[in-house]
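Hey, sorry for the delay on this. The queue was backed up all week. Below are the sequences that define the complex (chains, strands and the ligand SMILES where applicable).
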Amino acid sequence: MEIVVLVKQVPDTANVGADAMKEDGTVNRAALQTVFNPDDLNALELALDIKDKYGANVTAISMGPPKAVEVLKESLYRGADRVYLVSDVKFAGSDTLATSLILKHAIEASVKNYDLVLTGRQAIDGDTAQVGPQVAEKLGIPQLTFVTSVESVNKKTIRVSALTDEGSAILEAKMPLLMTVEGDVNVPRPPRVKRLLKYMNAVSEFQMEEDWLTDEEAKYIKEKGLKVKVLSFCDLNVDQNLIGLSGSPTRVKEIHSVVFKSIESRAYPATQDGVGSMMNELVSEHIIG
Ligand SMILES: Cc1cc2nc3c(=O)[nH]c(=O)nc-3n(C[C@H](O)[C@H](O)[C@H](O)COP(=O)(O)OP(=O)(O)OC[C@H]3O[C@@H](n4cnc5c(N)ncnc54)[C@H](O)[C@@H]3O)c2cc1C
């Protein structure tokens, strides 16, 4: 079985400091730590679990700037077999429509006979949850969304549990198909020490092109298979008019930086009655309850 997992490096929106936004209202990416998109860790775990139970090759693909290689190394530490970085200045400024087109071409260029494509349900920065379904449409394969677990895999059919408006349902579908995976549905395995020691020296082809490696180090990286393949514009059979800013129909009209400030404070005595009055007030103001 061939499984592709789409993984995204995102700004750590849980730890946003005062300098997170620039004066012009754009995100100050340099001031934000980056993390593995949480839902994508759940998607990767689901793929690795299928691999453990049924046997599979797991390929992780990420589109992003050169430093996105870090989430690919993380994927290798956890058990992915192959990784690809999709990166080119021509891709910059892509909205979800363009991003999903690039990812579709990246999948086709790297994994010929894929059975499953897994994505997270949602990325914590863009937050649209559009990329998974759009990639399925563009690949021309069916999709199951809000998947929480895999019940069984039988030759070319997969049975999964997924969230629905009414609760949950057991769904069966023929592969190849794309599934978007809910967050918090499993506990992502930690990096394996052996794999971490093996892949910690992995570098992307971008880094190989820079001159900071000695000839010996470069030879070692090639021999040990530690070179992360970069898929650039030239490697993908994608129309340049449909990608990047010019290929992105989404227009950001206005950005507001919302800063919550406390405008008044109230003191309650640290007694049973004091806590009671505070709770009553919070409920009557519809802040809780
Ligand atoms: C006009 C415009 C310009 C933009 N320019 C840029 C830019 O220059 N640089 C930039 O980083 N963003 C840019 N963005 C944001 C970018 O479009 C989105 O981050 C991207 O399309 C993913 O959308 P999302 O974050 O809503 O992902 P969702 O749809 O919420 O993600 C769902 C799942 O899809 C997969 N996925 C999503 N994105 C990727 C990815 N890149 N690689 C692998 N898997 C992925 C993951 O599995 C993820 O869990 C721009 C957006 C707009 C509207």
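The chain has a mean pLDDT of 93.

I'll add it to the shared folder too.

S.
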